[in-house]
Amino acid sequence: MNASSAASDTEGRPAGETPYRSGFACFVGRPNAGKSTLTNALVGTKVAITSTRPQTTRHTVRGIVHRPDAQLVLVDTPGLHKPRTLLGERLNDVVRTTWAEVDVIGFCVPADQKIGPGDRFIAGELAELRKRTPKVAVVTKTDLVSGDALARQLVAVDQLGKELGIEWAEIVPVSGTEGTQVELLADLLVPLLPEGPPLYPDGDLTDEPEQVMVAELIREAALEGVRDELPHSIAVVVEEMVPREGCPADRPLLDVHANIYLERPSQKGIVIGPKGKRLKEVGSTSRRHIEALLGTPVYLDLHVKVAKDWQRDPKQLRRLGF
Prior knowledge:
The chain is an alpha/beta fold. The chain is 34% helix and 20% strand. The protein contains ten helices and nine strands. It has a six-stranded mixed sheet with strand order 2-3-1-4-5-6, sandwiched between helices. Strand 4, helix 4 and strand 5 form a beta-alpha-beta unit. The protein is globular and about 60 Å long. Mean pLDDT is 81; it is low at 1-13 and 51-58.
């Protein structure tokens, strides 16, 4: 072997240099386990909608974490749950398909709730997956519990793995809300990725189309403060996003026209509110987030419509993007 070949590896890197890694990591867990908040914290900006209501996420949102040594692409799936509708069945199919394709899986368990049947069901499904996919247990929402309670939860998660034959690559406590140990989690996930070049251009934070992200931000605002049954009934479609004609280049305005779909006429009053007050709040809240996302002033035109029983209707599910 000559001197030049000895100084580099097979891919032309200097000897001893850390290999660049890139790949996909998926957070799984029951609904409202903190997966979307954690995704946003790792990426450093809002790419997944969050809500105190379970079953908020309906699309696999990819958030992209750029590091000097790696590119970590986060896939945020809907929470796996016992489906009651065709929509529910399709969301579960999305989860299982995603699990089969990623390089590492993060199993999210909230620190403030005892491990229950939902957690065991998902862990049981993970145990059936191919052994070579590394699995990291992530105890979320650590800001909501004492040190003693957190210690008990970490032991319970370790025990759950032993019972089901899952060897956790790591068990990590984090708070996505406060950013506690989020960097550590990234440090632990990266070595589990395969070596390879970046998968997305530098600066990209998600591969979600802008219209989908705008629709999700509107849906997030519409979910806040409504009754428990409504999250499953709300869908948002952005019909049009166009720059306002005649605006000067230094003062652009983007016209966004969107429809909020509900399943029953009786639900319209809840979303619109007395004298339209609630819908105005939805509009102003989502407009702020949309402007922050797109970096331009926005005129938001919102309409509330009924798509009867859309969660159970294959044609309407397709039309609404599921």
